[in-house]
Amino acid sequence: MRGEDFETGSTVQEKRRDSKPAQVSRRALISWCLYDWANSAFSTVVITFVFAAYFTQSVAENPIVGTALWGHTLSLAALIVAFSSPVLGAIADKTGSRKPWLGGFTAVSVLATSMLWFVEPSPSYALPALFLVGLGVIAFDFSAVFYNALLPALAPPGKVGRLSGWGWAAGYAGGLTCLVAALFGLVQTEAPWFGLDADRAEHVRATTLLVAVWFAIFSVPIFLYTPDFIRARYPIGMAIRYGIRELLSTLRNVHRHRNIVKFLVARMLYIDGLNTLFSFAGIYAAGTFGMTVAEIIRFGIALNVSAGLGAAAFAWIDDWIGPKKTILISLVSLIVFGGALLLVESKELFWLLGLAIGIFVGPIQAASRSFMARLAPKDMETEMFGLFAFSGKATAFLGPFLVSTVTLRSGSQRLGMATILCLFLAGLVVLLFVSYPTAKLRTGP
């Protein structure tokens, strides 16, 4: 029910808002970007590289069972996030404050991550590990809703693309730095830090403590120096009732937000393609090009470096030509280089084209966030970023299903991976029908 208050009409409490300073301090902006640096350690070390491999190879009954359990857990977490994020966002818009929610979910993710230290290499620890991983992922994704919702008011005039891109680049850098520390200080060394016992996998388990400390420490600046701008408008009980009611009203009157819906559908398609690319890149590299685990890890690190550099470089381009054109350029490039990658035979060309793809991975993610910041109606930013989270999770099953089904029926990994290009193309076509707002982005209440 945008544009009017509930039940009794406009109230003084509803309209009270902090005034934004003439200029947000550089320290506040850096602190916001540091949160990306902080939380990326969780997704890089725990979910993608180290702990995921430890669980499937050492904790689960066998790698096949471990892979299935890991996949089911992440899928369940994605469903919970998809259908809960819009509700949480709508409620947060009624309480008017994002940082308390951000702090609460950050604390849950940090605590769950630290508890993974107790997961020993035995099948009896599989279920506790999956519970903690699922809890950590859910809290991590919920925190991103409130973190992203701070962007519209923080960004200086005409620089929302730069701030989003710099944050995303900081995330790649932070995740990689923590991964390197974990690999060379704990995992791939004959003398792990602190004399940890490798026979009990303490050197691998300790990577979760490293991530928890990393996440906690580098999250502190956003709570100290980055402003929230909006005072609480409703007590929590009223906020829950009014927030859910407004979300339902938004869904009933979805035609009023037709442009946002088209953008979210486009993003749903191309992000599903991107996530599937991440999930199957290592499998494709091993199966088609015979790359070893060590080579795949090196390729993954190099891919993240190129993605971070791309996000930083395209941050200026986003503000120059707009996020829609930035996303379109990235999608076209992903389709072209991805198509070439499916045709080449040599490992050297695989590396070259893979790194070229990485350059456009970061910009498409950062520009999507800045586009949502530009499209979100005033006073509905967190709700809209909740729907933004929904669009990134709701069809998470589709890409892996297409790749696995086509691969199985055709007997070709190349044909299976080609379905990812179809998702990119479908997202591109839908995005062409999304209107880009010509008015200057709001930079405050």
Characterization of the model:
With 445 residues, the protein is mostly helical. It has one domain (25-431): MFS general substrate transporter like domains (Growth Hormone, Chain: A, Up-down Bundle). It is 76% helix and 0% strand. The protein contains 16 helices and no strands. The chain has helices at 12-15, 26-59, 63-95, 99-115, 126-149, 151-154, 160-187, 202-225, 236-252, 258-289, 293-321, 323-341, 347-375, 381-393, 398-410, 413-431. Helix 2 (26-59) crosses helix 7 (160-187) and helix 10 (258-289) packs parallel to helix 15. The two termini are 19 Å apart. The relative contact order is 0.15. Mean pLDDT is 83; it is low at 1-22 and 439-445.
List the helices and strands and how they pair.
Layout: H1 12-15, H2 26-59, H3 63-95, H4 99-115, H5 126-149, H6 151-154, H7 160-187, H8 202-225, H9 236-252, H10 258-289, H11 293-321, H12 323-341, H13 347-375, H14 381-393, H15 398-410, H16 413-431
Helix pairs in contact: 2-3, 2-5, 2-7, 2-8, 3-5, 3-9, 3-14, 4-5, 4-8, 5-14, 7-8, 7-11, 7-13, 10-13, 10-14, 10-15, 10-16, 11-12, 11-13, 12-13, 12-16, 15-16
Return the string of H and E elements. Answer: HHHHHHHHHHHHHHHH
Main sheet makeup: none
At CATH level 3, the topology is Growth Hormone, Chain: A
Radius of gyration: 22 Å
Share in β-strands: under 5%
Structural class, judged by helices and strands?
A: mainly alpha
**Secondary structure tally: strands:** 0
The overall pLDDT average reads: 83
The CATH H-level homologous superfamily: MFS general substrate transporter like domains
Which CATH first-tier class would you pick?
Mainly Alpha
